[in-house]
Amino acid sequence: MNLYRTTFVVTLFTLLEHALGFVYRIVLSRTLGSEMLGVYQVALTVFAVFLTISSSGLPITLSRIISKHRARGYKRGEHAATSAALCIALAFSVPLTLLLFLLRPQFTRIFSDARCADVFYILLCGLSFTSVYAILRGNFWGNKRFFAYSLIELVEEIVMIGLGVVLLVALGGEASPNKAAIALLCSYLCSFLIAVVCFFARGGRLYSPRGEIKPLLRAALPISAMRTTSSLLSSVISVLFPLAMTSVGYTAAQAMSEYGVVYGMVMPVIAVPCSLLSPIALVLVPELSECFYKKETEKLNVLVERALNAALLIACALIPLFLSVGKDVGIFLFSNAESGTMIAASSLILLPMGVAMISTSMLNSLGCEKQTLLIFLAGSCAMLLSVWLLPPVIGSGALLVGTALDNVITAACSLLLLRKKTGKLRSATYFLRLVLVLAPVAAAGIFLRNALMEWLSYVPAVLLTMAVVMAAEAVLLTLFKLFDFRALLKKFLPAKKRAAGGEPA
User: Fold this and answer.
1) Which residues contact 310 (CB under 8 A, 6 or more apart)?
2) Which residue, among 118, 125, 116, has the nearest Cα to 45 in the 3D structure?
3) How far apart are CA 149 and CA 83, in angstroms?
4) Quick one: CA dihedral 275, 51, 202, 62, positive or negative?
């Protein structure tokens, strides 16, 4: 299967997974409400810190090391690296779990709301299982077994959503965040079991990790430090933001509700480009690593350019939609007008967020883990300052401003480093052409939406606006040769089918 068709298959799985997750987020927001969603989100954020400590930097590092061994034909090294990663993950996750349960009375004090602690300790039961699963996922990634990787992720999402809907809706009773946590825990256990079976069924072996632990740790620690700091930052924000809000007159419940709106409703929508880009990053990481170790510079530059162009295209194509109907999205999905206003106001964040995500993934695959850590820390400082200083001025908008500054700094610094690493970046002209073509579409979309509201009822006006904007984008992107739908389709079709149709294979 070629790179394009692989990306297409993985993208289909990812889109389905994220679509289901998005629907589940709507269910959570409607059944739990913004305050209980905030409780669930805070607990999930704190749990993410310990999950990050246990395994976060290992999967991508393991995939890169496996790619290096594959390039050199060293099969035993692949098995040894996987064993080393499993040993490291268990060495962190098992003691952490036991220690946190032993110190539960003391640890619970970090939560401003006791309900968060109950949710956290339910999730903590799955820490070791999901850490092991993360390592096996890294093995699949490095060996380019993207179908198994994507399928297990999808099954995990389906189990979480199915059980969550049963517990929160079908069985009746009070809709508590504890039930959502139980559903998530069960999905962790399910993905762990399937991954273990898949690993051994596909010839996976566990060899002595001797000689692989130190190189793996050395490469993984900067990524783990970056992601642990990111999780810690989210945890600090979950504590700092309510304090900053209450200091300017909000009640504790109102502050938690505002946090729930931003992180439970707005951020999942704003993160759509990252959801669309994640399959591209997933397929590219082992490919870039192999090119890097084989010193195939020209192929490396082509892959980097295509990945950046994809990030720019996705973000620029979504911005006109968000600007024109973003206010309505919050009402449709979450029955919350405030979230819609925030979605529309933060539309431009899509661009730096998408570029930051894809460029950081590529830099990590090229062995730049230490540099990406420093870049991340610079962006995080801007985020913290915004959350601490801006609530008196713009309330919960401080979270969005901080997110924007964080991603702008990360994207700019990552692009500079990527240019230094590859020698040149050739996406600037493509970006300018995208802006010139799609900016008028955004303006026309806003005007059309307001005009249609005068003539049609609410729902038809919004749907028609979306349809016109998407159609206009498709026509203009094709007309100005910014995206070739026909050529892309040919990339996905097997060569035999193209040849049978009269085209040269």
Assistant:
1) 277, 280, 358
2) 116
3) 18
4) positive
Would you state the pLDDT for residue 505? Answer: 31
Pull the structure tokens for residue 399. 């979270």
| pLDDT one-digit tens code per residue, 409-419 | 999 999 999 88
Give the tens place of pLDDT for each residue, 457-483.
888 898 999 999 999 999 999 999 888
0.85 exceeded by the pTM? no
Convert 232-252 to b/e letters by CB count within 10 Å (16 or more is b): bbbbbbbeebbebbbeeebee
3-state secondary structure of 296: coil
The token duo for 14 is: 């990812």
Asked if 435 and 319 count as a contact pair (C-beta separation under 8 A), the reply is no
Task: Kindly state the tokens that stand for 285.
Answer: 């990481």
Number of C-beta neighbours around residue 230 at 10 A:
20
Distance CA 281, CA 307 (A): 8
SS (H, E, C) 64-98: HHHHHHHHHCCHHHHHHHHHHHHHHHHHHHHHHHH
